[in-house]
Amino acid sequence: MIPFLKYRLVYALFSAALILISIFSLVMWGFNYSVEFTGGSNLQYQLSAPKNEEQIRSVFDRLKIPVDEIEVKNNLVDIRTAAISANQEVQIRNDIGNLGTKVTVLRSETVGASLSQETVKKTFIAMGLAIVGILLFIAWAFKNFTFAIAAIVALVHDVLILAGAYSLMSHFFGAELDTMFVTAALTTMSFSVHDTIVMFDQLRHYLRRTGTGEVEKYANISITETFVRSLNNSMTVVFMLLALVLLGGDTIRFFVLSLLIGTVVGTYSSPFVAMNLVVWLLKRKKR
Question: Phi/psi of residue 74, each to 5°?
Fold first, then answer.
């Protein structure tokens, strides 16, 4: 048996530091939202001849289309504007072509304001339903709300740190918050609870036989017996995600990084946040 919970203060301080950094980033910088959440159009063109940002912007000024962002990198142009019609997109492409270059469309997507509001609404509903579903399932499976509360706190811990990390990526590397991030957050929630349930089940097995008198001792035994399996399981996912980060394309890089951060944080939180909290709650309940 390894006395993992002997260092509970270290885990608490480490988690508190990560959460404070996450909250600071979320409050100070927030996210760069994609058109899926704000509405508008995303255009990406490949040009046969290089053009600078001023030349591209002049096209939109002439057509009186508001532009949020134009990024020119080599012959690749990324443009973010207010929502435009298909006819306006064709006109933009033709006018850029008149600058003396051939234009190839790599991406053209438009999301209206009402659809973007619906996406935000569905995102919060999905996450809320996931949390409530997990809370009810664990409470039913373990016949004890103490385990459910500890699991949900660990889950919120993981999602908050993931959100803070993504906020930092948005601020320093230009990552946009889109539905891919929502997918990564929901996956993190699932992965976090999966590991937590395995450790809780092992602890419950001991408590059924011995009672809660030595809950910390049996929590340490439970972590020791399940930690290697949990770590091995997580590492197989981590290696796959690292390969995608290094070799995957730019379009999925931030999504994969989010999954990677979520996997690491979820693996950490199960033994060092959830188990720590459930032991503390059971001891208080005993009093």
Answer: 55, -120
Q: Which amino acid is at 86?
A: A
Burial classification of residue 21, based on how many CB atoms lie within 10 Å of its CB (0-12 exposed, 13-18 middle, 19 or more buried): middle
Q: Which CATH architecture has domain 4-35+115-286?
A: Up-down Bundle (1.20)
CA distance 221 to 1: 5
Q: How far is CA 201 from CA 93, 217, 230, 235, 254, in A?
A: 60, 15, 13, 22, 34
Q: State residue 212's pLDDT score.
A: 64
**Among the residues of 110-214, which ranges form H helices?**
113-142, 145-173, 179-210
Answer yes or no: CATH 3.30.70.100 is held by domain 40-110. yes
Is the CB of residue 262 less than 8 Å from the CB of residue 274?
no
pLDDT digits (tens, 9 = 90+) for 137-188: 888 888 888 899 999 999 999 999 999 999 999 999 989 888 889 889 888 8
Alpha helices in 29-75 (DSSP H): 35-38, 53-63
What would the two tokens of residue 83 be?
A: 């929502």
Name residues whose C-beta falls within 8 Å of residue 249's C-beta, 6 or more positions apart in sequence.
none
Tally of CB atoms within 10 A around 104: 12
DSSP state at residue 4? G
- Could you tell me the residue ranges of all domains in the chain? 4-35+115-286, 40-110
pTM assigned to the model: 0.85
Other C-beta atoms lying within 10 Å of the C-beta of residue 102: 11
Radius of gyration from C-alpha coordinates of the chain: 24
How large is the angle between the packed helices 113-142 and 179-210, nearest 10 degrees? Answer: 10
Burial (CB count within 10 angstroms: exposed 0-12, middle 13-18, buried 19+), residue 192? buried
Q: 3-state DSSP: the chain helix, strand, coil percent, rounded to 5? A: 75, 10, 15
